[in-house]
Amino acid sequence: MSWSAAAGTPGRDRPVVTFAEPEGYDERGRGLSLVGRVAPRTAAAAACMVLGLGLIGGAVTGSWIIDDGGDATAAGSFSSAADLWHNVPVDELFPPTVLGTGAGPGGADRSWTRIAVAPDTGCADAFDPLLRKVLAPVGCRRLIRATYTDATQSYVTTVGLLFTKADPAGMTALARRFADEHLDRRTDLMPQPYAAKGTAAERFGPHQRASWAISVLTDSPVVAYAVSGWADGRTVDTPQAAADAEASGATTAAAQAGLGNEAQGLADRVERRLRQTITGPATEKPS
Q1: At what angle do helices 34-81 and 259-279 cross, to 10 degrees?
Q2: Which neighbouring-strand residues pair with 99?
Q3: Domain range summary for the chain, segments of one domain joined by +
């Protein structure tokens, strides 16, 4: 009903109301039986309910179909990731140059240049004994590593990708243990650096480790890590995990120098490239 009727229109000053014929009576005013009145409504309601159940059932069935496809795709991606260490060129996993927009202290931009690539190896001599024990449940299929330096060649950082023998359940269990026990912050579980001779990292040994980051992936059989230090070979008395060194108010030498940002920045970007290699370009899911 419009309350802005034009001038001269009947009913302008008050609404015109008409009354329908009372429900429950025929055109002669005779009462209709209760059954006659209720049955059509009941039938209509039943039809609506059946239609609604059909729509709900279709939606649920559709979600099962979508979920099954997603699980199959995830399983395929997990399986294919296990062989990337020899199926993908080294420049794809460890690019010669890595740009870190906003990766430095205070959101400063960083860039890293690769100075050495280690031969792919097993894990026997690549980790300290305690870290090797923690990683033992997922096994070691292959380990690939590379070492980078920053634009000023003041810092060096080794990044590594450990390809495990574990299934998704095994990787999930290890990731949960790392999270529950904060294993990524323990100084006795730092990864080893790769100190390539004839490079800025040749003096980057166990005692030069300043900061590190470890990430246990659950969508791939991979443990990604990075460990950073000074390029001049100075020893570090109080190394600090990257997550703590990047925190506001951190005062250790590693934190003040931004070595936590070096380790975390490179680890994040190498892990991101790994995922892009596995899944390919991201595509938008239909709504």
Answers
A1: 110
A2: 111
A3: 15-79, 82-279
| Range list of H helices, 96-154 | 129-135
Dihedral through CA 203, CA 206, CA 208, CA 214, nearest 10?
120
User: What pLDDT is stored for residue 121 in this prediction?
Assistant: 85
Q: Are strands 222-230 and 211-216 parallel, antiparallel or unpaired?
A: antiparallel
In total, the chain counts a number of residues equal to 287
- Joined tokens for residue 102: 């906003």
Q: CB atoms < 10 A from the CB of 112, how many?
A: 26
Distance linking the first and last C-alpha atoms of the chain:
38
Residues 93-133 have pLDDT tens digits of 999 999 888 777 777 788 999 999 998 888 888 899 999 99
The overall pTM is greater than 0.90: no
115-140 burial, b at 16+ Cβ within 10 Å, e below that, comes to bbbbeeeebeebbeeebbebbeebeb
Whether 80 and 86 have beta carbons less than 8 Å apart is answered as no
